[in-house]
Amino acid sequence: MNRFLQGVARAVAEAFDLPGPVLEIGSYQVPGQEEMADLRRVFPGKPFVGVDVRPGPGVDQVADVEALPHASASFGTVIAMNTFEHVPRFWRGFEEIFRVLRPDGALLVACPFYFHLHAHPCDYWRFSPEALERLLDGYPSKVLGWHGPASRPAHVWALAFREGRPAITAAQHDRYRELMNRHARMPLPRGRRLRYGLGRLLFGRGPFAPYLDRERWQSRLLNRPVAAPPRRGGATRVAARKG
User: Fold this and answer.
1) Do the strands 155-161 and 141-147 form a parallel or antiparallel pair, or are they unpaired?
2) pTM score, two decimals?
3) Does 196 have pLDDT greater than 90?
4) Where are the beta strands (DSSP E) in 17-170?
5) Shortest CA distance to 82 belongs to which of 41, 115, 44?
6) Among candidate residues 143, 135, 5, 23, the one with its CA nearest the CA of residue 77
7) Which of 29, 40, 82, 232 has its CB 3.0 to 4.6 Å from that of 57, i.e. a possible disulfide?
8) Cα separation of 110 and 113, whole Å?
9) What is the chain's alpha carbon radius of gyration, rounded to the nearest angstrom?
10) What's the pLDDT tens digit per position in 17-76?
């Protein structure tokens, strides 16, 4: 977790009415990051359960996302911020989240892409924007985002709604973007910005882009029509016409 991603969570929570209860996957608060990693404050007044594979600060229940102990359709919102790079069989985790979400539920997920190895306890995976979009194929409405250089994004994230939730509107997306500009900030200290700026002049932008561009972000609104269930007797009528 970093301040930019905390700002992403704030922008999402303020732009959209996300239902409770809230389940956070990977809620362990690393020493020294307790205040920044505490997402309960972002969802005040909503029942909140934090799970992780190890006990500690922020953890209400020890559980593995590959086999969640919760009933199907028992949560309105699931959050997983910088967690899935540590999940050995991440596809099972995404399946379990879909299972415990209500049909009108929402998933907020963020994953690193261009980021150093960090073992908690192991670091397995990196996800491009296209990979995250594919993993969320089962959610018909979503906002996909990433920050940093376009060819080397630092993190990717998505807010995805299940089929029972109305599609995200253009006005909601605009409001979310406005709040992103307000909350998703991680400015470089002045001294480092000056050093990186000088390095850019001497050696070119490429090596320093991940630092100079870390507050630059992009987002895409992706809506797919939900197929209407077939009408009763429709197949029978078609067969009769064919005869």
Assistant:
1) antiparallel
2) 0.89
3) no
4) 22-25, 48-52, 61-62, 75-81, 101-112, 141-147, 155-161
5) 115
6) 23
7) 29
8) 10
9) 20
10) 999 999 999 999 888 777 788 999 999 999 999 999 999 999 999 999 999 999 999 999
